[in-house]
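From the shared-data thread, chain only:
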Amino acid sequence: MPDEVVPEAPSRPQGGGRRRHGDREVLAAIVFVATSGCTWQQLPSASFGPSGATAHRRFAEWTKARVWAKLHRLVLDELGSRGELDWSRCAIDSVNMRALKRGN
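Structure, as C-alpha cells:
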C-alpha cells in the first residue's frame, strides 16, 4: 500500500520485542478474513504470517485512520486516470468495511 495511506508504525522506545509484520502480509490476512467468512481466530497464520489477533488489531488501527476510505479513493482515481471509470455514475460518500470477531 502507498505510504500516504497507511499510518506510520508506532515507535517502540523500550526496544526489543517481535518484529512488526509488514503491511502487505497484514492486508492479505485482512482481505482473507473479509472475503472467506472465517473469524480472526480461524485465520491460518501459517499461510499469512500475522496471527488473527495481530490482523484484527491492525484492521482496527487502519479503520480508525480511515485507511479503507483512502485506499478506495486511490483505486477510483487510478481507474479514472485510465479512463476505466465513469465518474458521472459515482456517488460515494463513505466506505465501511466490517469483519466479524469471535465468530459473530
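The two ends are 29 Å apart (CA to CA).
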